[in-house]
Amino acid sequence: MTMQTETAKPTRDSADARPMWQVVLVRPEVMTFALLVGAFIIASNLSPFFSDAQFILESSTYYVEYSIIALVLTLVIISGEIDLSPAAMMALSACVFAALYQAGLPIGLAMIASLATGVLMGLFNGILVVVFKLPSIIVTIGTLTLYRGLAQVLAGDRSIGKFPQWFNGIDYRLILDVPVPVIVFVIISVALAAILGTTVIGRQIYQVGTSEIASIHAGIRVRRIKLGLFVAMGVASSIGGLLTASRLASVRYDMATGGELQMVLMVMLGGTYIFGGRGSILGTFLASWLLVIIATGMTVANIAITAQLIVMGALLIISIIATNAIYARTQR
Amino acid sequence: MADAPLIAARGISKQFAGVEVLSDVDLDLMAGEIHALLGENGAGKSTFAKILAGVHRPTRGTLALNGQPVEVNNPTTAQRLGITLIHQEPISFPDMSVAENLVLGRTDSALLGRVPWAEMEQGAKDLMTQLGVRIDVTKPMRGLSIADQQMVEIARALASDSRLIIMDEPTAPLTPKEVDTLFKIARRLRDEGRTIIFISHRLEEVQALCDRATIFRDGALVDTVDVVDVTDEDIIKLMIGRPLRELIHKTGSEIGEVALEVSGLSQPGMFKNISFSVRKGEIVGLAGLVGAGRTDVARAIFGVAPAQSGTINVNGAPVTIAEPSDAIDLGLAFVPEDRAVAGIFKTLSVEHNITATVPGKIAPRGFISRGIEKALTAQSVKQLRIRLASVRQPIGELSGGNQQKAILARWLHTDPQILILDEPTRGIDIGVKAEFYDMIGKLAADGRAILLISSELPELLALCDRILVMAEGELTADLLRADATQETIMHAAVPKTGNHAQESAA
Q: For B117-169, how does the pLDDT look when each residue is reduced to its tens digit (9 = 90+)?
């Protein structure tokens, strides 16, 4: 096709492109990385343990279940939704696992049933959001209470334990000196980063989060993507629940209470934009380690649990302000 | 007219992020005149108006009001000086009543003072009487038409006794009758000695209403003319700096088989019993007033909001379109009306925007190939002459015309056989419009079927082989190009409530 040419038109058809150094450096993950380095330096001064990688890896096993779920939550938040029910999903799927095992089901089948419970819970969240078009924040506040309640009905007030010896203590199992849950975390990080960065699904997650209406008009199957993400949350939560069950060698209905906020904190600290469309797995990955170092560092430095909450809350607010400022600066 | 100007602007310049968007504007506005500001998008007219209204501060230059130098640092100061800007889509508090909206921003009462409801209501009623409009001031803003909301804004200007009222494209969302009312009121205000700045793209309105016109181009003031002395042609020449080419689509493309046929399409509350067909190589226009249901029909065909009943045939075979991906698989494409919301992914790169419709092409083996994506984008940029700094910059940084080109490019990659274009040239510079007309003509000449929804009658008359007209959710006319004139189209487009006489069998 040839078009009419002589539009000797003025310049302002677009803003100037940003210089490359800005594209690379002015992004939220850089902030996360800087915080990580800063936290590491401070923590090393507080305690010589921090120069020991083994100590950090061991400490990380207390948080890594949350970190794994936070990776999937990153995708959900980029797509413009949120899921606040994962901690409750961890508890319910772990209770299903424990109750079925106790009732005499082979442990393998009980684990599969736990994963299936995760799928069903995620599906339920997803259907309420996608089919009934309800806001996900309200839906998942509702189901977080519902799932936790069901877990309590199922498990009562007691701990269910007495799992076979091989099932317990996965956090002490090492491969190349690295605890197995940490390896799971790294593998899932790489896989999700690849999906987000190089596949059509990943691209469409960003597009849906940027503008759902434009996505629909471009033929993107928005409902399918969102439903899939909520189901993935259920599965990840179930995996997190099983890892926790193994680490603690027992299951209670109040497993991971309040964990959803830690997960949101990791995603936010990693620079993912709370309104969707922007964010990265790398950010959440770095933020997970940041949190491990801060939490462990404060414990080592004998800072009271109550004061630790203040630090976490302040971090969350700072990260949201910084992320917003960076996005406002780079995208007019 | 008084001798001394109401407002004297001298050397007004404005830079945004180092780019000069307005340079050295000298302009005198007289008391008691209606003064048009004209120019393409980005020419600087709106920026100038916003400087007068205190929304932007000039980088350089001075303003004088009645000979006294003034600084208009913010909208509140402007209000106090008697300058009011009326927005196209009025900004108001939709859940508060009209009367409450009228007194917003007035700071003459104590923070915890008693609200004088009765006085407020009476005052509001008086203003409406003064304007000669009937609006129930106790109703919430939400229920009002856009025209009535504008009236409320004008009433607000009167309430604060504004001497300069700036109307930024006030007529775009209005029906002809509402435009008439607006003009009557504008003339009355002028006769009272107030000054009105009227920003519009519609030259016929400028001719009908304004005393003088100032034309902007590329951020500079080109000329100020007395409207009676000039023709539309002269103004266009000043606006674009060259005579306007004939925009008529001349290539009589070969018209083939029926590509798209809809029959009995109905959606309660939106449209009913819509039947028509579009042939290969044919450009069919869809005219009608805003709210006639044209966009709803397009959205129904494309599967964004499928119709409750009725059938759609593509190439002679009945099809089910439950969501847009079905439509795309059938070779349909849809450029939506509201580009900012339904078209672009504002913060994503131009590249990601252009390839959004063709995931299969950019990722043949499941993983996105940077090479293919780059090549597809480069092809579009060249083919459609998209002007940009980089394909990796966010699309929101491009001008409206170039964003729209990118949206069209997105669809051309799907090689659509049927294109539905909803107001494709809205808010686009005249120069780029001409390019779009050329493109649309060529797409038809390639044998594609095109359904063109437009509110600009000259555009429809220039491009279309046939023009359908909708009014109040029904098809009221199906005119061949030879029979279509602005009059016949408007006649069919204006609602005749209770009298649906002219239903045409399509």
A: 777 788 888 878 777 777 888 888 777 777 778 778 778 777 777 889 898 88
In the stretch 424-453 of chain B, residues with CB closer than 8 A to chain A read 429, 431-432, 434-435, 438-439, 442
Per-residue model confidence (pLDDT) at position A150: 94
Q: Say what the pLDDT of residue B124 is.
A: 82
Domain assignments of chain A as residue spans, ordered by start:
50-330
Whether the Cβ atoms of residue B107 and residue B166 lie closer than 8 Å to each other: no
What is the DSSP annotation of B85-136? Answer: EEPSS----TTSBHHHHHTTT---S-TTPPP-HHHHHHHHHHHHHHHT----
Question: Closest by alpha carbon to B468, among B459, B481, B458?
Answer: B481
Taking the C-alpha atoms of residue A254 and residue A154, their distance in angstroms, rounded to an integer, is 12
Distance CA B430, CA B408 (A): 17
Q: Which residue of B has its CA nearest to A199?
A: B367
Enumerate the CATH 3.40.50.300 domain ranges in chain B, comma separated.
Answer: 7-240, 246-331+416-506
Residue B408 has pLDDT above 50, yes or no: yes
Q: Which two tokens stand for residue A269?
A: 């600290």
| H or E segment and range at residue B351 | helix B350-354
State the residue for tokens 């437009």.
Answer: B454
The minimal CB distance from B388 to the residues A6, A7, A14 is found for A14
Residue whose C-alpha is closest to residue A221's, from B343, B358, B325: B325
Tokens of B267: 């959606």
B346 closest CB neighbour out of A9, A198, A210:
A210
pLDDT of A168 strictly over 90: no
Residues B217-234: what's their mean pLDDT? Answer: 84
Of the candidate CATH numbers 3.20.14, 1.10.10, 1.10.3470, 1.25.40, the domain formed by A50-330 belongs to 1.10.3470
How far is it, in rounded angstroms, from Cα B290 to Cα B295? 9
The whole-number pLDDT of residue B500 equals 39
Above pLDDT 70, what percent of chain A? 91
Give the C-alpha separation, B221 to B64, whole Å.
18
- Which residues does chain B have within 8 Å of residue A220's beta carbon, measured at their own beta carbons? 325, 356
What angle do the packed helices A180-198 and A64-78 form, to 10 degrees? Answer: 10
Q: Which CATH number is B246-331+416-506 given?
A: 3.40.50.300
**Which CATH homologous superfamily contains domain B7-240?**
P-loop containing nucleotide triphosphate hydrolases (3.40.50.300)
pLDDT of residue B503: 37
**Can you give the length of chain B in residues?**
506
Q: What are phi and psi of A2, to 5 degrees?
A: -115, 140
In the numeric block, the tokens 């190009």 are attached to B481
Question: Three-state DSSP class for A111?
Answer: helix
Position B498 pLDDT exceeds 50 = no
d(CA B21, CA A322): 30
B59: left (phi over 0), alpha (psi -120 to 50) or beta: alpha
Residue B466 near residue B479 (C-beta atoms within 8 A): yes
Q: Which residues contact A249 (CB under 8 A, 6 or more apart)?
A: A161, A163, A168, A169
Interface predicted TM-score (ipTM): 0.83
Model pLDDT, residue B112: 63
CB B435 within 8 A of CB B76: no
* Cα angle: A174, vertex A288, A188; to 5 degrees: 60
